[in-house]
Amino acid sequence: QVQLVESGGGLVQPGGSLRLSCAASGFILDYYSIGWFRQAPGKEREGLLCIASSEGRKYDVDAVKGRFTISTDNANNTVYFQMSSLKPEDTAVYYCAADWGTVCSKFAYEYDYWGQGTQVTVST
Predict the structure, then answer these.
(1) What is the C-alpha separation between 118 and 93, in angstroms, rounded?
(2) Cα gap 58→103, rounded to integer Å
(3) What is the Cβ-side half-sphere exposure of residue 7, based on CA atoms within 13 angstroms?
(4) What is the dihedral of CA 95, 101, 103, 108, to 10 degrees?
(5) Angle (nearest 5°) at CA 78 between 20 and 103
(6) Which residues, in sequence order, are bridge partners of residue 37?
(7) What is the CA radius of gyration of the chain?
């Protein structure tokens, strides 16, 4: 069965960095788009970045441009989400999600599988 397990969240000071991990099992990353999303209280779930192994990075958003990056470790079926220069407004629950194929949509409804989410809190 397909599973996504996220880890790496926690409390970090403004300006700090954090790396989130999304360990995938039950499928091969090459056949899926992996998106990173976040959702803050009272806010919509926001697509941040997506990567498909055969396509590379597909999109990002202004809020994280130049600060967040995606990388993959195909041998370990893991996707990393590296965050730098963190700001208080980055505080949210962060999710990875998988969509079969390489569309790499920014829309949450397109994704078939989701991790449990990991809380990132940037202190003020």
Answers:
(1) 5
(2) 9
(3) 4
(4) -30
(5) 95
(6) 47, 95
(7) 13
CA distance 32 to 18: 24
Q: Where are the alpha helices (DSSP H) in the chain?
A: none
- CA–CA separation, 20 and 83 (whole Å): 8
Angle 36-92-106 from CA coordinates, rounded to 5°: 30
Question: What is the residue-level pLDDT of the chain in tens, covering all 124 positions?
Answer: 889 999 999 999 999 999 999 999 998 888 889 999 999 999 999 999 988 865 566 666 666 778 999 888 888 999 999 999 999 999 999 999 999 888 888 899 999 999 999 999 999 8
Q: How many CB atoms lie within 10 A of CB 102?
A: 17
Distance CA 28, CA 66 (A): 28
The residue length of the chain stands at: 124
